[in-house]
Each structure stands twice: as structure tokens, then as C-alpha cells.
Amino acid sequence: MTDADHFQLSGSGVFVDYLPMGAGAVSYLTYQDVHRTVRFCGDQIRRSSDLRGAVTVDLEAGLGLNVVTFTLFVPEVRVANGRRAKITTVGLVRETLGGALPDQLPLPIDHFTAIQMTGFAEKRTGVLPWNESPIDVRPTIPAS
To answer: Residue 113: is its pLDDT beyond 70?
Structure first.
């Protein structure tokens, strides 16, 4: 058994593919929702020093303090090589508003949306190059 090195998760219309250590020895994360599909790598993915397993990316940046971030709480998962384990975790979307117009909204206001995410963690036997990863995590809907 070893640590999982690939996570695919979805919940509430959000799809995430995360490689803690991908090609080039850097992390990769893809975030997809109804508004956007965004890929991140290396230093664009921030690991929390306070919250074990939490990784954060900036989805949107606006004027002043206006920013939208996504934090994924990555569980510790031990699996055998080439095997998968079902997992459930939480993703957190944080929308920060304010700061750009100090006389109208002088202090930043945060709005949080918690997303229950389910999927799998696996230990892959090889590392996919970035252009082949992530795998599409959207569920397949059978034709009726």
C-alpha cells in the first residue's frame, strides 16, 4: 500500500481532477463548473500550512480584494499500485467582495459555498503528461 497520486471528484456540478505530483514533478489541478474549465499547475496550486491536505487555487481575480477561490480538502488515502478507492471529501468556493470601492464596501465580505464531493483516489503505475491529463470526470449519461 502507498499514497494515492491521482484524485477525481465531482459534486453539485463541479468536477475536479488533482495530481499531487504529476509530470515534471509538479502538481496539477483541473476545476470545471458550468461557468469555466480552468487548469492549474505548480505554484498556482497553494498548499495550506494550517489545514492539512487543503489545496487552493484562484478561479477569478477582480479589482481590489475581489477574488473567487476553490479549496479542495484532499484526504490521505493508501491504495495498492493500480488500484482505486472510493472517497468523499469537501470542496469550498470562497467569493471575496470588497476593497476596490472603499467608500461603498470598505471591508471585504466573504461568501462560502461548501460542496460535498465524491469520486476516487488511485495509485497509478505511471505519470501521464499534462496534455493527456486530467481525465474527464463528468459522468456519462446513457442514451435513452
So the answer is: yes
